[in-house]
Amino acid sequence: xxxxxxxxxxxxxxxxxxxxxxxxxxxxxxxxxxxxxxxxxxxxxxxxxxxxxxxxxxxxxxxxxxxxxxxxxxxxxxxxxxxxxxxxxxxxxxxxxxxxxxxxxxxxxxxxxxxxxxxxxxxxxxxxxxxxxxxxxxxxxxxxxxxxxxxxxxxxxxxxxxxxxxxxxxxxxxxxxxxxxxxxxxxxxxxxxxxxxxxxxxxxxxxxxxxxxxxxxxxxxxxxxxxxxxxxxxxxxxxxxxxxxxxxxxxxxxxxxxxxxxxxxxxxxxxxxxxxxxxxxxxxxxxxxxxxxxxxxxx
Length: 299
Hints:
alpha/beta, globular
């Protein structure tokens, strides 16, 4: 288990909607900006490349007609993992000596068809983790296949043990517990959730896991959508996602940076992994507080 201080960042940003190349270029610029501020782990939002299908408009995809153009453009601008866009982020991680968690629409070009809501952990060494969301939420099921659960993995990096879940997967106690068992120290939570209740969930996970939590939603203003966006959007200028990026410490579940609302920005904190060990002296969810003998059969 690593110790010491690590500078981490929640990069709250807006996709260049339905444009993978421009979104990747924007992400690489933001990595360089974070690196210039001494950041060693940067976390991007859920489905940053190239679009999060907001429930404000995406629920209408349940029709057979009317979404073929959107689907085609989304597929064309999705990401193979591994693939060339991922390689560009790996090269940037090597250049800046840092690690990156990235949310992408994942496709399999060798077998065209389904898309997946995927989170990747990248570093100078390459692709360290690919996790597909276990259970897309409500309208998301119109766009994404389900994950097979074989990738619920914590990765031991020079910065510490990094793991996490995507958006409302974080509400799944057994999924969380599978990662707690692996000694996670830095919990990453790419998301599209911008409610105050979500921040309470993140604070709870920090306390429950004894890990620092980096929560990163998108900020999605109405103006980000291109004029030729092939789906009906709501009238008005109200943002489709307010953000709320924040970083939480593990003893009291206190936000040590953020939340940031209604803007793009980089939320940064220096996290002391020694506090993770101290937190587990008080409450170790898989140790002296685990009681798997009573509550769970062996996994």
